[in-house]
Amino acid sequence: MSVMRDRINTFLKYKDLLRELVVRDIKLKYRRSFLGYIWSILNPLLIMIVMTLVFSQMFQRGIDNFPVYLLTGNIMFEFVNSSTHMAMYSVLDNAALIKKIYVPKYIFTLARITSAMVDLVFSLGALLLVMIVTRSQFHWHMLAIPVVIAQVYIFACGIGFILSAANVFFRDIQYIYNAFTVAWMYVTPIFYPVELLPDWLRWVVEHLNPMYYYIQHFRDLVCYGQLPSAYIFWGGWIIGFVMLAFGLFIFKKTQDNFILYF
Q1: Which of 27, 116, 132, 174 has a CA-to-CA distance to 19 between 20 and 30 Å?
Q2: Containing structural domain, residue 84
Q3: Global pTM?
């Protein structure tokens, strides 16, 4: 209990640094950009338009309001994809600072994930616009959207800690993870209904693909106007916290050796 209290106190001690790092990452991302933060809304809109033109004729017959269906899946997956890629470089990018002063190293990874979550919140504006244009029905269940955002944020933090630590020792992880996320996207029902998959592959996606839980949870709230099933709801929390615990374990076990590989 005392160890946990000390860790919480350490985190609170550096919470201002975390906030400054998040602000810095967001400013750097949109530095010298004319539209700035508006890109957080425009980017998912442009992707949705392109993907709708490409895939709508293939899959929309069994999907009501394909643009909203597509955007809800893409928002969730793009957050995990972008946040974990950013987190992968978090320790290496701050190597000079880590060598000079003591700072909890996980702060840098956490800042990258959090700055990506800010983009996720902005991208909900794109979803709102699409729902208005397509005259989608708004449900009171959408008030529970922060719950699924919290779940996917915890999950992304776990992956981020693993990648940021692994990238210090094994730089090829960058290329491996790029290939992995491309394959991951295609086995995640973002632009197609999971019912189209063969039975064996559908079982794999519904039980072994973590993104299925978060995307289905999000769609239940936005597209279907219902609360998710207990399987989806608790599965999202369990997967998130298991991944976070594993990520923190890996990060803590390896962080003392980071400086030897900078």
Answers
A1: 174
A2: 2-261
A3: 0.90
